[in-house]
Amino acid sequence: MRGVGFLKRQLRRAWPFGSGPRPVILMYHRVAELDSDPWQLAVSPRHFEAHLEHLRRSRTPMDLAAFVAALTAGTLPRDAVALTFDDGYVDNLHQAEPRLAAAGIPATLFLTTAAIGRPEPFWWDELAHLILDRSAPADLSVGIADGRYRLQFGEPDRLDLDRRRWRAWERPRTAREAAYQALWRLIRDASRPERERAMATLRRALGGAGAASEEERAMTPDEVRGMARRGVVTLGGHTLSHPALPTLTPAEQRWEIAEGKRAAEEMSGQRVEGFAYPYGAMDASAQAAVAACGFAWACSTVATAVGAADFQRYALPRIAAPNAGKAVLARALGDG
Ligand SMILES: [Zn+2]
Fold first, then answer.
1. Gap from CA of 283 to ligand 1 centroid (Å)
2. Which among 322, 30, 4, 36 has a CA at the least distance from the CA of 176?
3. CA proximity to 51, closest of 3, 109, 95, 4
4. Which residues contact 259 (CB under 8 A, 6 or more apart)?
5. How far apart are CA 231 and CA 106, in angstroms?
6. For a designed S-S bond to 38, which of 62, 168, 215, 277 qualifies (C-beta 3.0 to 4.6 A apart)?
7. pLDDT, block means (10 residues), the chain with 336 residues
């Protein structure tokens, strides 16, 4: 799950190294065809295939561990690209892995381990179903942490029904969108028990939404084990329960990061070396905790190419893969 403001960062990205390709780490979440995708988490299977074909022809795709090793050694090709997936959606298994295998392109999957094997959707998807996909009016007050949020909106208006155009990091146009955005922030920054309590309240009051499709769930432990065994996708850490790490104490940060690593290693039977910060949210203490837990490198969501000389091993930048064809991908990569 990406954070607010990534688009602004993407627009600000600079290319100080002149023309020619720069090494890039690409960030995906889902490979799926979605009706509504306020966070732009999904790339359609058709676009994903086009991406792989483009990357195979015009880039040097590398496993991210090899990418970081070459970066460290100063031998990384200018046109290197590494693919990453965050969270652990089951469509990564059904849609992404077979296409990666067919193209001979490796990827890294950063797993939110507490979600693995749980039937309910990730909270941000469920919140979107409860608020944005809802057709009935709502008027209730939800307690989150020390505050209360008043949720109040009427029948969906024209803009609500046309919600495919709205992105969750943009200014909300309707009361529904404003409610989704405000609750998203409050729930993201709440503690895990507070988050679960708030979601339970919303589910009860608004009439449980469930998942939009079978593909919206996270993988099961068996599915993760099979994926790790086949070796096209390497597992990485993404914490136990997907907190915004800067909202936690240093001890809590270490626990979330270490428990996520332990569970991912137990499921995969392999050493897990790489990490990605949930929501891209990091601070100095989170970076130190990732290093102290034994990770060799970590990815942020700062949307730039990778600098050869000034890279930060525990804050590697990543560019979000667009849900579009080759030409848009090439522009996002800075290739044309
Ligand atoms: Zn995530």
1. 16
2. 36
3. 95
4. 113, 239, 240
5. 8
6. 168
7. 53 48 96 92 98 97 97 94 98 98 98 94 93 88 87 85 85 93 95 93 83 87 97 98 97 98 96 97 98 98 87 95 96 88
Query: Domains of the chain (ranges plus CATH)?
Result: 6-119+218-333 (3.20.20.370), 123-206 (no CATH)
Amino acid at 175: A
Residue 18 has a pLDDT of 55
Q: Identify each DSSP E strand in 269-330 by its residue range.
A: 274-276, 297-299, 319-320
Q: Measured between alpha carbons, how far is 15 from 305 in angstroms, rounded to an integer? A: 8
Residue 20, pLDDT score: 81
Distance, CA 85 to ligand 1 centroid (Å)? 9
Amino acid at 296: A
Structure tokens at 114: 């507490």
Which residues lie near ion ligand 1 (Cβ < 5 Å)?
1, 86-87, 278
Distance 280 CA to ligand 1 centre (A): 8
Query: 249 phi and psi, to 5 degrees?
Result: -75, 160
Q: How many CB atoms lie within 10 A of CB 3?
A: 18
CA of 319 to the centre of ligand 1 (A): 14
pLDDT of residue 154: 87
Token couple for 309: 């000389």
Yes or no: say if 10 and 292 are a contact pair by the CB < 8 Å rule: no
Give residue 53's region: left, alpha or beta (phi > 0; psi -120 to 50).
Answer: alpha
If you measure from the C-alpha of residue 17 to the centroid of ligand 1, how many angstroms do you get, rounded to a whole number?
30
Q: Where are the alpha helices (DSSP H) in 74-149?
A: 91, 97-103, 123-131
What is the pLDDT at residue 156? Answer: 85
Find the 168 Cα to ligand 1 centroid distance in Å.
15
If you measure from the C-alpha of residue 19 to the centroid of ligand 1, how many angstroms do you get, rounded to a whole number?
A: 32
pTM of the model: 0.92
Query: End-to-end distance of the chain based on CA atoms, in angstroms?
Result: 27
Per-residue burial over 210-240, b if 16 or more Cβ lie within 10 Å, else e, is eebeebbbbbbeebbeebbeeebbbbbbbbb
